[in-house]
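Supplementary Methods S3. Input chains for the assembly prediction are listed below.
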Amino acid sequence: MRLNFRRLAPVLTGICLAACSAQLTADGTAVDKVYHPYVEPLEWELEWRMIHENENPISGESRRQLHRVGFGRAVSEFVFAEFYLIGEQSAENDFELEAYEFEILWQMSEQGEYLLDYGLLFELEKEDGVDVWEYSTALLLEKEFGRYSATANIGLQYEWGDDIVDELESSLALQVRYRQSPRFEPALELYMGQDTLGIGPAFLGAERLGIMKALRWQLGVIFGLDSDTSDYTLRAVLEYEF
Amino acid sequence: MRIAASVCFFLMLCSGAWAKTPVFELEIRDHLFHPDELRIPANTKVKLIVYNRDSTPEEFESYELNREKVIMGGRKANIFIGPLAPGVYPFFGEFNPNTAQGRVIVE
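Predicted structure tokens for the full assembly:
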């Protein structure tokens, strides 16, 4: 058996992240989109993402909405980079710019090459107007079972800055998707974090708009499974790929 | 800890040794796939090496095979397919969808 760094890196990362996941969980809602460990070369992307919590039991805010607008492109065959502006509003607070984020997705295996497809996600976020930073790394895993695809995002986050207590957190997102047709794929998703334990259905689809042009959409509702999680969280994604 | 142990186990498996994978070859020439029909064994993972002989990029795409792979002009790409049940799985070139068409026949 020949082992090299490319194969060992995700193993070591996974062991570290999984071990930490057993001890740590992320605060705030962990509901987000589930990332897949693939990069499409030559692709540019414009993205809008929204998370809506009916009531956050921890902060007491109701109808809290988190909006992300992102612009990204594949910078190599296996690396995709994206920059986000993040805004937030709730019933108690008007909409305002909340943070900036830079993200790198690194595809580390060819699809179907190994037992699991794997990649890494790196994110650096800075909150606007305050000294709060967050760096996160997530191991992205995917496995195909006939027309089903199972995906896991195992994340580890570190927050620091003068305006926040330094903290190490972790998160887990799971998705099982049925590839019914390009336009409609039902899925079941599970999210875990310090203040999140939720499960619910999601629906994904894509509409081809021309050569290397497509509009992808996702819509999901995640139901809280414990007292720290919002009763329901809606999530939506629109991605224009070109 | 059970989650951690399960993840580690699967990661070790995914990085370890694997059985020899049958290799098939495909060429893109003048925005066409050659051959345009490929026969592969059922329930077996195969490695498909796609050579793009054109100077422009092409994308091997198939929803049925769950694969999308861009192959730059003058380059080659490895695409792993299967194991698949017997059947016909169409594919096409995203940049030239009207001409670059083919199918994988699993038997």
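Helices of chain B lie at 2-15. Residues 65 and 89 of chain B are 6 Å apart (CA to CA).
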